[in-house]
């Protein structure tokens, strides 16, 4: 996850291309998400990478954890009671959140 103030301030293509290639080669082990604060659309493109408008927040991190299978699904009863989904202890994970401190909020 990387946050920047705008698309023009994202890391240079040389860096993003390497990260994108690695993500494509190892989709089960690495994913890349870009966030920008000031793009007009909800989701934009930077080359062939999707860029999400907004800051990295708890919801973005939880969504990624859910998508990557890092959270076990909650039962309907757990959802009703407001329980948090359980962590999947079978996977070791490293979350790297990058960007200006004011754009990374957790």
Task: Write the SSE topology.
Layout: E1 2-4, H1 13-25, E2 34-36, E3 43-46, E4 49-53, H2 58-67, H3 76-81
* Main beta-sheet annotation: 4 strands, mixed
The shape, in one word, is globular
Low-confidence stretches: none
User: How far apart, in Å, are the first and last alpha carbons?
Assistant: 12 Å
Contiguous helical run count = 3
What is the C-alpha radius of gyration, as a whole number of Å?
15 Å
Please indicate the count of domains: 1
Descriptive notes:
The structure is a single chain. The chain is of the alpha/beta class and 106 residues long. The chain has one domain (2-103). The chain is built from three helices and four strands; from the N terminus they run βαβββαα. Strands 1-2-4-3 form a four-stranded mixed sheet, with no helix packed on it. A hairpin with a 2-residue loop joins strand 3 (43-46) and strand 4 (49-53).
Give a nutshell description of this structure.
The protein has 3 helices and 4 strands. The chain has 106 residues and is an alpha/beta fold.
What characteristics describe this protein?
single chain, 106 residues, 4-stranded mixed β-sheet, alpha/beta, 4 strands
């Amino acid at each position: 996850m990387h946050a920047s103030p705008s698309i023009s301030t994202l890391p240079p293509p040389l860096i993003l291309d390497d990260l994108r290639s690695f993500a494509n080669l190892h989709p089960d082990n690495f994913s890349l998400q870009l966030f920008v604060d000031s793009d007009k659309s909800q989701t934009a493109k930077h080359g062939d990478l999707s860029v999400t408008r907004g800051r990295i927040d708890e919801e973005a991190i939880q969504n990624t954890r859910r998508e990557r299978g890092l959270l076990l699904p909650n039962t309907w009863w757990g959802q009703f009671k407001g329980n948090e989904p359980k962590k999947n202890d079978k996977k070791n994970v490293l979350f790297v959140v990058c960007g200006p401190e004011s754009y990374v909020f957790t």
